Amino acid sequence: MFCIFVQNKLAMYENNLLFSIAARFLDTAQIASIEPLGNGLINDTFKIMVQGCKQPKYVLQHINDKVFTDVEMLQRNIETVTDHIRRKYEAAGLPDIDRRVLHFLKADTGKTYVKVGEEYWRVMDFIADSVTQEAVTPQSAYDAGLSFGDFESLLADVKEPIGEIIPNFHNIEFRLKQLDEAIAADPVGRMKDREVQDYVKKIKDLANEMYLGEQLYREGKLPKRICHCDTKVNNMLFDKDGNVLCIIDLDTIMPSFIFSDFGDFLRSAANTGAEDDPDLGNIHFNMAIYDAFLKGYLEGTKSFLTPVERENLPYAACLFPYMQAVRFFADYINGDTYYKTRYPEHNMVRTRAQWRLFEEARKALK
Ligand code: GN1
Ligand code: MG
Fold first, then answer.
1. What is the rounded distance in angstroms from the CA atom of residue 318 to the CA atom of residue 174?
2. What is the largest CA-CA distance in the chain?
3. Among 232, 259, 327, which is best to mutate for testing ligand 1, by the most ligand atoms less than 8 A from CB?
4. Does domain 138-364 have CATH number 3.30.930.10?
5. Which of these, 205, 208, 229, 251, lies nearest to 320 by C-alpha position?
6. Residue 328 CB contacts under 8 Å (≥ 6 apart), including other chains
7. pLDDT tens digits along 289-300
8. Which numbered atom of ligand 1 lies nearest the CA of 338?
């Protein structure tokens, strides 16, 4: 049995259950074990080990359908995108395509997910000989810029509709409205804390500055494109030599401003501390990483990026720590109902850390 922290509770996954779900996708006779994998804040992920193989063969994932309420759309989006990229790679004669784009297995239902009881599950191939990194160097930041730029340009001509899987996901006006609702409801009494009140004020004082993207969009000056929308460093797989292999965690692919992919990558990559660093002294905005990522991203997107998008990339790098602070903070006030937390104050610690990163980015990019 495995225990995984979900919303302060231990989620228990019986081995038998995991095996029986895997059996819907593949022949379980080959399975040696199923064990927890990774540190996502939303879904629960497991690696499937098979006999005679040191590295995992498949990844089994429990889909959080409180967050992704339309699982059919979720998987359709992912299949559309992965099929599209695969076809392009094949046409270009690229080698080793199975390690460059994710592949989801079909279950006995013919779909790439199953519903077991009230829960949704899926299985994908594990990308062989790949590693994740929590930190980047200027060289890998440059490569990541190229890769995410490439990723967006590969998706520029997708014909099938890509649904907005989480409506208003990166809309800061909407996120601030959610914060206001949390403040008004104050369901667990966290608003009486002086520090919490101070953060409300700090966040609101700078809100106008952060509305820029939505304003430009309303004025018809900023397009939405198909973006990844969760470009954290640990959502890229690298090969043993540190080259970018494959972009993973495709759940949030949806139409958005390119600011999402640019800003969210730097939110993790340019942070010299951890996303939830309790020591704010560790948190600075690393300009060498910013410059390298920018260079790669501009190269990767040169076929389509407009001047308005290009000029506002520094804004995007500030917007994302700001927005993440707002989201962690609202969840804290709501009593930790969205993000997995490991201890009671976790979302507040994350809020402080993201706010500090925002201040540091704003100072560095002024
Ligand atoms: C969530 O689960 P994970 O780590 O891929 C969140 C992102 C946040 C991130 C913060 C659907 O992503 O938007 O930036 O946590 N995903 C969703 O680490 O809300
Ligand atoms: Mg994600």
1. 17
2. 61
3. 232
4. no
5. 229
6. 339, 347, 348, 350, 351, 354
7. 999 999 999 999
8. 19
Between the alpha carbon of residue 170 and those of residues 104, 157, 165, the distances in Å are 26, 22, 12
Neighbours of ion ligand 2 (CB under 5 A): 230, 249
Instruction: Tokens for 330, please give them.
Output: 């609202």
pLDDT score of 61 = 97
Neighbouring C-beta atoms of residue 108, cutoff 10 Å = 9
Tell me the CATH architecture of domain 2-125: 2-Layer Sandwich (3.30)
89 in helix, strand or coil?
Answer: helix
Residue 159: pLDDT above 90?
yes
Every domain of the chain and the residues it spans: 2-125, 138-364
8 Å CB contact between 286 and 270: yes
Tell me the CA–centroid distance for residue 41 and ligand 2, in Å: 7
Model pLDDT for residues 96-119, shown as the tens digit of each residue: 999 999 999 999 999 999 999 999
DSSP character string of 153-210: HHTTT--S----SSTTTT-HHHHHHHHHHHHHH-TTSGGGSHHHHHHHHHHHHTHHHH
* Three-state DSSP class for residue 108: coil
From ligand 1's centre to the CA of 152, what distance in Å?
Answer: 19
Ligand 2 center from residue 232 Cα (angstroms): 8
Nearest Cα to Cα of residue 123 among 52, 15, 20, 12: 20
Distance (Å, whole) CA 104 – CA 111 = 9
Q: 5: which strand partners?
A: 10
Look-up of token digits 């490569």? 143
